[in-house]
Amino acid sequence: MKKLFFLFTAILFAHFGNAQYIVDSIPYTPPYPFTIGTQTMIGIDDVWSDTINLSFDFKFYGNTYTQLVIGANGVISFDLTNAGGYCPWSFSASVPSSSLPTNAIFGAYHDIDASLGGSIKYSVNGVAPNRAFVINFDSVPQFDCNDLLTTQQIVLYESTNDIEVYIEDKPDCSAWNNGNAVIGIQNDTGLIGLAPPNRNTGAWSATNEAWRFHQQNIGINNMNDRVKNLRIFPNPTTGLFYVYTEEFTKAEIFNSLGVKVMVSNKRNINISNLGSGVYFVKVFTKKGLLMGEILKN
Question: Which of 112, 114, 140 has the alpha carbon at shortest distance from 43?
C-alpha cells in the first residue's frame, strides 16, 4: 500500500506542481459587495473579456499568473488566448474535462446573458500582500429564462492563493441546455480538476452558499516522516478502519479528486457508504498535520 500511496502522490505532484487542492463549504459571508468594480463586456453575450491585469502574482495548479480573462458565462481563465473570443455556453462534460474551458475557475459556469441586463465587474481590493481580485456577476439573466437572475462572486486571494466562490442566487433553468451548471476548477490540460459535492455539471440551483478551494503544499521529501508517525489499519478495508497517532484530534477523508467526503472526530472511521478506491486521510493532531491513505475494497 505504501508503494501505491507514494506513486499516487508523486503523480499528483507532477500534475499540480506540488499543490493539491481541497474544497470546503464555508459560511456565506461575501467579503465584497456584488455591485463594485469596473464593468466589462457591457451588453455582450457569450464572449471572453480582453486581458485583465491581476495586480499581483497568483499561483494556480503550480503556475504563476499575473493576468486573466473573464468569460461572460460565469467563468474565468488564465489562458490568455481566449481574450476577446467566443465563450462557449453549451456543455455537458463534468470537471475535469478538456471539453470545458481549461486553466479555469467556474463560479458558477452556465449560460447567462449580460446583453439583457445585470453587470459583470472586476476590482482589486486591499493592500499588498493581502489583496483580493474580485469578479462579480450581478443580477445577470439566464438565457432563455430571462426572469431568472444569477448573482455570484469569485474571489482570488494574494499570498494564500485561495479561491472563493459565493453564490447569492443561481436558479435552475432546466429548459435550456438541460440546466447544466458547474462550480469547480481545472488545470491547463483539463485532466486534473475539482468540484464541490453536488455542484459538478448538472441541473441544480443554489442560494446563499459558498466554497473555498485551498492549495495544500506537501513536500514530497518529508512524506516519509509523516507516514512513519501514522498508522491506518486494516488497510485495505471493506469499511471500518482505525487511525493511530499521538494526540489525535480529528480526521478528514478525501477522494482521489481531492473532494472532502467525510470528517471524523473519532479514531474509528466507517467508510462503508463510499465507493471502492483510494482515499486520502488527513489527520489533525495537537502536534501538527499527518497524511495517509486507505484503500477501500
Answer: 114
Quick one: pLDDT band at residue 6, thresholds 50, 70, 90? very low
Residue 4 pLDDT: 46
Residues 165-169: what's their mean pLDDT?
Answer: 98
Residue pLDDT, tens place only, 29-42: 999 999 999 999 98
* Nearest Cα residue to 141 out of 165, 106, 176: 176
Specify the 3-state DSSP secondary structure of 40.
coil
Here the cell at position 275 is 465507493
Burial class (CB in 10 A: 0-12, 13-18, 19+), 201: buried
CATH number of 2-7+219-296: 2.60.40
Count of CB atoms situated within 10 Å of the CB of 276: 10
What is the domain partition of the chain in residue ranges?
2-7+219-296, 21-216
293, three cell numbers: 491513505
Q: DSSP character for 84?
A: T
| Long-range contacts from 63-70, C-beta under 8 angstroms, 24+ separation | 63/17, 63/188, 68/133, 70/40, 70/41, 70/120, 70/122, 70/135
pTM of the predicted structure, to 2 decimals: 0.73
pLDDT value at residue 77:
98
Amino acid letter for position 156: L
